[in-house]
Amino acid sequence: MYIENWGKADLFVRVRLDEYMEIGEGAGLKSLSVDDNGKPVPNPLNFAQPLDPRANIDDVTTWTPHIPKIGGVPDECDSAADFHHYWTWIMGGEKNYYPVLEELRADQDYIDNSGEETIAASSVNVSGVSSKSTPRALVLTMEKWLNMGSPVGDYWVIDRDGWSYWASPIQNGDATGLLVSGVTARNVPEDTYFYGVNVVAQMATRTGLIVNGQEDNYERFSDPENGGWTADAEDLVRQIADGRPVMSTATTTEPIPADVTIKCDDDDVIYKTMIHPEPGREYILYTESPAIWTYPLDADPNDLVFEPIDDMHLKIIVSPQASEESPYYKVSTESKSDSSQKDSKTIMIM
């Protein structure tokens, strides 16, 4: 999922991903009629039970926003419905796409269906449009983004209310990186099931027309009818829109020591000096301070692939064909500011 700017002004965007899942006979069957008040009548053949009892398959406004756990990672949510017992989200990354033709951009109802399943960097579509690549996005929780110093750039930042903000203006003809690049099954129910994700996207400009006495711009993110925003989100948007720095909550004037301890967006795979990733999954290794990363450049792609993101993040993509028979791989870090600060971990595929 990404957003392309078809307009002429810079865009400031946010997205909320609402989940729904039900299990049982008739799962996925939606209403075929409405009552006298215009409300959907439940499909009589649907006996499935939603994981969140407050949710309704026929009303996406009742679906559950994806909100990461406090201190957790972006792809694991804090819902009692426990959607991610069943599903793994692959978040972040980049893709090739075909920019929308200029003459089609003025149609507000236009939906682009020209994308192909696989678009190469050199692809050209039937309209003669050459492919373009989105930025490579890194997805962070708001907590993590603040701890990193509130950087502006190719980041999706998921706030505590479920809204994800692109931490940079999108210029005309450009796009965001991927918020979600894939969904894979983790535990498939034995019974019939339905799983869906509703995407709520809001885009705004820095300035806009006066509507009902108010400027129609990014300030409208704060309106309750639009979902509102938190104080941290307001700081983030104002920083990228107006250049205002995010207010720091730090209370110490002492230098922060470099921390290049190798961590992972999935805490469960690290045990002491070992990393135990699962085949077919992607992980982000990260440090709290800028580091020089060392890893095998000749790793067998049938085992895993290393993709550097920046000096604090390294992605590892574990092949579905990898197994316990795969060799071990060592990853090391050294602080850019203090060469005495180092760490290393050994990757052993489970």
Distance between the termini: 30 Å
Please state the structural category: mainly beta
Count of DSSP E strands?
24
Overall 3D form: globular
Mean pLDDT across residues = 87
**Tally of discrete structural domains:** 2
Gyration radius from CA atoms, angstroms: 22 Å
Question: Helical segment tally?
Answer: 2
Which strand-content bin applies to the residues? 25-35%
What oligomeric state do these chains adopt? single chain
Estimated helix fraction? under 10%
Largest sheet: 7 strands, mixed
Low-confidence stretches: 247-256
Helix/strand order: EEEEEEEEEHEEEEEEHEEEEEEEEE
Which key terms come to mind for this protein?
350 residues, 2 domains, single chain, five-stranded mixed sheet, Immunoglobulin-like, mainly beta
Helices and strands in order:
Elements: E1 12-23, E2 33-34, E3 40-41, E4 49-50, E5 64-65, E6 87-91, E7 96-97, E8 132-133, E9 138-141, H1 142-147, E10 155-158, E11 163-166, E12 180-185, E13 193-204, E14 210-211, E15 214-215, H2 231-242, E16 263-264, E17 270-271, E18 274-275, E19 282-286, E20 291-294, E21 304-310, E22 313-318, E23 329-335, E24 342-347
Parallel strand pairs: 9-10, 18-24
Antiparallel strand pairs: 1-4, 1-5, 1-11, 1-13, 2-3, 6-12, 7-8, 10-11, 14-15, 16-19, 17-18, 19-22, 20-23, 21-22, 23-24
